[in-house]
Amino acid sequence: MDKKYTIKDIAQMAGVSKGTVDRVLHNRGKVSPAALEKINEVLNVIDYEPNLIARNLKNTKIYKICVLLPDPEIDSYWLPCVNGIQDAVKEFKPYSVNITIQYFNPESKKSFVSANNAVLNLEPDAVLIAPVFHKETIEAVKVYEESNVIVNTFNNQIESNAVKCFVGQDLYKSGRVAASLMNLILSEGQIAIVHIDESLKNAVHMQEKEKGFRSYFEEKKLNSFLLTTLKLKHPNVESKFLNFLEENPDLKGIFITTSKAYQIATTLSGLKDKKIALIGYDLIEKNVNYLNEGLLHFLIHQNQKRQAYLGVSTLAEHFLYSKEIPETILLPIDIINVENADFYIY
Amino acid sequence: MDKKYTIKDIAQMAGVSKGTVDRVLHNRGKVSPAALEKINEVLNVIDYEPNLIARNLKNTKIYKICVLLPDPEIDSYWLPCVNGIQDAVKEFKPYSVNITIQYFNPESKKSFVSANNAVLNLEPDAVLIAPVFHKETIEAVKVYEESNVIVNTFNNQIESNAVKCFVGQDLYKSGRVAASLMNLILSEGQIAIVHIDESLKNAVHMQEKEKGFRSYFEEKKLNSFLLTTLKLKHPNVESKFLNFLEENPDLKGIFITTSKAYQIATTLSGLKDKKIALIGYDLIEKNVNYLNEGLLHFLIHQNQKRQAYLGVSTLAEHFLYSKEIPETILLPIDIINVENADFYIY
DNA sequence: ATAAAAAATGTGCTCGAACACACTTAAAAA
DNA sequence: TTTTTAAGTGTGTTCGAGCACATTTTTTAT
């Protein structure tokens, strides 16, 4: 019943040679109707599963997968991704899949373009892109498509049907999750939605989260809340935020749409009298520290490590085992507080 | 640089035959110091990774893994586990690993014992047990050890160093997580810790959760809360609970330590005037429905599906790729509310 | 010095799928 | 009927690791 049948077994049972069986299995034609029927009869009775091990043995091609990632030394947000990729590298090392990372400067479009050119020169079979620059990515993807290179993206979504698969999170929903948590901590008052970012690369990202956040309060008709949006940019994050605090002395909660919640927490830790609910994103060390201190109340885990890992592993498994690549992989929106954070940090 | 070296390559480089290289790689002895040195020199320079595909090709042994699981038709709690196992079955079908499930009646120790005997007759290479019956499991594990069968457990932990690996959750911590959420919904009042179970099989399980729950309030010195424990057993869950409600009219919150939170929610849905915070376990359909209705506030996801999957997949990968089996795999304590539940339901 | 034993080394086959190529049989054309 | 072409079928090799066995070299004993 659970015996593993081989092509040779089938050939024997059908009274033909393994070559003929092979032709039937792969629709290579050149098979007489009589032989076809005999073989199909056998195939209908038994449950043939080709031995993937043997199939791949013959395949000496080394598949090349390139990952385009912002340099984590410039923006440490991307560090977990490197770990995720390295996990995949380790996993697929014994197989004929070669994974390389190409870093670029997340503040320089030029750097992104030249990184793409470098990748193209490596003639990869597939690439995984963190599409920080929208327009430039669209163009790069076009070139990859012409060269028959499979493209996966992660973290940020871009609209292009040349992209095979996107790994990420439903940002709108994650904003709603944040809102539901905020509504649990507070029952009324002013809440600020704060966008902190050096560049405005994540504009769409942050907007989606804000939309989701606001939708929750609107839908539930929670009129006792007042939502205010605040944009902060690199050199003067703290000063501008302090201004905002002075102008809004009754602020009760802050939803930070990026991983920079720790910056707000740092500022607030200097003001002892303020008791403000903070919800942010990502389990980076500084955030977790403030979680432990009780200044940060919730973090939403975007699990970039797993995003990056899944981005390449689906590609590798596609090449190795001809697994299908799903169009989108949406990771769960993990709710983290001080009590369960440990289990999400690797 | 990233070329894949084969044993033949190494043999050629070292000026010996592949047989000798093989002996060195596997410490099979019978190698002259001169040859050993030459080969080691080559191995130090290049980065040899044996081709696992080729290695496993020759290995025609079909590994047998048996899963001992309570019949999900008797207790639907175990249904997700079946799905997890079936995922693993699908994944490893093309390889020489055979996974079978042996069901037993979770209310009958006799059934568990006979299931173990049936499994033993199949002469498995490894088993994964849901150790519902503590004493019986310990004894069964002893027998498996004597027959050199690897034993993994999941869901419940048992103390036996004959068990190779446990997959589960930190129950104490999960109780603390529940407490932290309760403390967010309520700021004072009486909270009931409710243990619901047909049999008292999960005694340790539930106790650990209660300990964790209580520890949170004790540690934070939250004296405005009053914690009460309530045990409910099958035939008269509702009546006893209604009694309890009458005797404790000021009850503000309930923490249900099993997956039966929906039973409490059902009863409460009949009493319109009560507004009680509910936190329970497991994303079973009935619970999720009450989550959507707003009667249940939080669920803690124990992810039995993944527990079962990991339980067998670590075994399969151990056999196929000689991966190490970790001693314990602790799954994260996922916090679920109505906003993020979708992403955890498969 | 020669035979016997031991140690070291090399050869060749296996696993299952895939595919090139050789071969046989049947059908169509001369 | 014979030749040519096409259709159908079978054989043999490859992939890399692993291991049995044959062969060669070295060491030890007689």
UniProtKB/TrEMBL annotation, chains A, B:
Domain HTH lacI-type: 5-59
HTH cro/C1-type domain sequence ranges: 3-53
Keywords: DNA-binding, Transcription, Transcription regulation
GO molecular function, one term: DNA binding
Pfam families for this protein: LacI, Peripla_BP_4
Family annotation (PROSITE patterns): HTH_CROC1, HTH_LACI_1, HTH_LACI_2
Entry keyword Secreted: no
Aminoacyl-tRNA synthetase as UniProt keyword: no
Protein name: LacI family DNA-binding transcriptional regulator
Taxonomic source organism: Flavobacterium chungbukense
Biological classification of the source: Bacteria, Pseudomonadati, Bacteroidota, Flavobacteriia, Flavobacteriales
